[in-house]
Amino acid sequence: MTSRMERIRKKLEEAFTPVRLEVTDDSARHAGHAGSSEAGETHFNVTIISDAFADLSRVQIQRTIHMVLGEEFETGLHALSLKASVPQPDEGEDT
What we know:
This protein has a single domain (about 5-85), classed as GMP Synthetase, Chain A, domain 3. It is built from three helices and three strands; from the N terminus they run H-E-E-H-H-E. It has a three-stranded mixed β-sheet. It is about 30% helix and about 20% strand. The longest helix is centred in the N-terminal third of the chain and has 13 residues, at about 5-15. The protein is α+β, with helices and mostly antiparallel strands.
């Protein structure tokens, strides 16, 4: 069984082929808050940089990412802090 973080990473990599992707589980900071679970894996921070976002507005990028992660939201993902952008000329090829 894979963790939610692994599934999020895989789905985003497959959908957007990012040049940079960071996914961190922030659930522990939200323990006891709305939408939290003792099992964790409810709150995540994502930084993603991809050429796939080149012709999209900020709202379109967020909607597209939420659609890709729709199943995760339906099965317990409660909150996603999202930083998404296109690559800048000085950004490397690290994922």
